[in-house]
Amino acid sequence: MAHELSSHLGAQSRNEQHRSRLVISLVLVGGYFVVELVAGLITGSLALLSDAGHMLTDVLGLLMALAAIHLAVRVPSSPQQTFGLYRVEILAALGNGLLLFGVGIYILIEASRRLMDPPAVASGPMLVVALAGLAVNLFSYFLLHSSAKENLSIKGAHLEVLADAIGSLGVIMAALVLETTGWRYIDPIVGIGIGLWILPRTYRLVSKAFRILVQAAPPEIDAGQLQSELCALEGVCGVHDLHLWTLASGMEVASAHIQVYREADAPAVMQQAQELLRSKYRLVHCTLQLEGEGQRCLGCSW
User: Fold this and answer.
1) How far apart are CA 127 and CA 136, in angstroms?
2) SS (H, E, C) the chain
3) Residue 137 and residue 6: Cα distance in Å, rounded?
4) Tens-binned pLDDT, residue by residue, of the chain (302 aa)
5) Residue burial 92-120, b: 16+ Cβ < 10 Å; e: rest
6) Which residues are 258's β-sheet partners?
């Protein structure tokens, strides 16, 4: 009981830290999104407007991550919510990734159009705004770095902030080229670069969230090898209906039916199986069902 209370308090403390970091980042990034949007419209820079669009997804990502943390720690309002609201984090990450994917596609289309007839851009104000935007993004990136290791929705926002920092570097480069050479094509070219920078990272985030939602086995665990190792335990004659999935970030779950020989020591088999899952595969939340040799398992068709 004391251990469970300590774990619960520790989780609450971590969530409070995550929440405070997200709020600070949200205020900074949200405020600067408005600055960058207005500056992009005034200067006529697609690179700056693209970076502002990316910063808007940062704002939405931070909001969704904040909402996910708030909902995850709430007590389920219905006894039917047997897993609580942990999956809200994954839904937030998926929605965030899809939105960012749309922004990336829009940037590529608009940049391609502007390559045909690049407009004039005020490079001086563009450079000042991009430098300030880079500072905001770097601060937010380092602020969220430790939290991103523990939470997928925060990781999504963290990746967006990093990508936006790279975008700000591109805008700075474009402004310097415009200021020194007047070559207008650099602005849409940098816009295309920002779009191409966004899309692969978005794909990885969406893929990970989708993998969790379809309850695929964690990629770092070889399900076939795990089943073989369970079968090799002393007293075990077979393993079936092995299921591995991820509930939320850092919460891997397993279930299996283990058949044991008639003369086997069932409690010892259970202890060996749990120790294998815990020590080698870091699977703490496991549901194991022991069955006798030759026992017919009903209802195990999937």
Assistant:
1) 14
2) CHHHHHHHHHHHHHHHHHHHHHHHHHHHHHHHHHHHHHHHHHHCCHHHHHHHHHHHHHHHHHHHHHHHHHHHCCCCCCCCCCCCCCCHHHHHHHHHHHHHHHHHHHHHHHHHHHHHCCCCCCHHHHHHHHHHHHHHHHHHHHHHHHHHCCCHHHHHHHHHHHHHHHHHHHHHHHHHHHHHHCCCCHHHHHHHHHHHHHHHHHHHHHHHHHHHHCCCCCCCCCHHHHHHHHHCCCCEEEEEEEEEEEEECCEEEEEEEEEECCCCCHHHHHHHHHHHHHHCCCCCEEEEEEEECCCCCCCCCC
3) 35
4) 443 434 444 456 677 788 888 899 999 999 999 998 899 888 888 888 888 877 887 887 788 778 777 766 665 666 777 777 777 778 877 887 887 788 788 888 888 888 888 888 888 888 999 999 999 989 999 998 888 877 776 877 787 788 788 888 888 998 999 989 989 889 888 888 877 877 887 888 889 889 999 999 999 999 999 999 999 999 999 999 999 999 877 788 999 999 999 888 999 999 999 999 999 999 988 999 999 887 766 655 56
5) bbbbbbebbbebbeebbebbeebbeebee
6) 239, 290
Query: What are the structure tokens assigned to 139, written together?
Result: 């601060």
Tokens representing 280 are 């080698």
